[in-house]
């Protein structure tokens, strides 16, 4: 900024002259931002979706020119599981915390109806964790590990016959939650003519089913031309490899076949270089920004609406967060009071019912006791009569026995006198 001389106005009282000389310095703000960002480091999270054996891990190793040492996945898992691994990478002075999330067992089940559910739940769980951190009283977002997924690389099986139903259903469920970039895996298994037809068919099916994939932004003049050209190459047909082959004087990533060698970084062989340029070198920050400003904002708005928060009232007047909270709190307390009253009434009603049951049981017990007492009295009377009868019979029996004995004795004496 050029120096400006301010002349004092021609008034009776002399005023101090202010001179701006030299450089002010606010044009260094971009440099300050860059230095701060480099100091804090960057976070980038990638979701890889595709059937087991399509080369997802190999492509990740090729993209970041490293070996993540991922273990192969089996084909006999009953459900889809998501495994996330975080790695600390550094290139020059820039540090990147990279998280790669893999869908283990995707597409291996006989019933593939709910294959996308585990993926959707995982993405929503990361959004929910970030939202809960935002809603805390003491937030620590600078130190918080942002696990929200910034891009989804959807690996398409190279059949040459279009998309499968599971591909369309899954991408339709995810297009409002994550930036989707479709990739034709193992593109070296398709000829160039078939590959162009396959790409056209995939894009036509995506548009026909209303699936919105990530479009590279063209609003920035510096990258509008290259991004516009790359949008026409979607989906990218990629080949990954962990093997290095010496070709001429160079050692390159490649795959060797009996009929020749496929060079991973040769643009005439596959779209690997295009994917790396668009994903990492050109549009990584745009994906991070779109994840926060679009996908997360949509989830946040829906969740807050589910919680009952709103920006305007019934009269379309602005409502503050505190007012909404007080209303929700009052409604919650009223609901709790109502439930307490209902529970108290229910308790009183149950106590009355229990008392009635106990009184009825007591009445039945008294009736049973009276009946048993009456039966006991009657039985005692019957036994007493039977005892008296037995005693009378015994007395009668003894009397008759005595008479019989006396009679027998008299008869015996008479016979003795006759002799």
UniProtKB/TrEMBL annotation:
Residues 40-306 form the Septin-type G domain. InterPro entries: G_SEPTIN_dom, P-loop_NTPase, Septin. Residues 403-413 have a biased composition (Low complexity). Residues 397-419 are annotated as: Disordered. It holds the Pfam family Septin. Keywords: GTP-binding, Nucleotide-binding. Coiled coil: none annotated. Belongs to the TRAFAC class TrmE-Era-EngA-EngB-Septin-like GTPase superfamily. Septin GTPase family. This is Septin-type G domain-containing protein.
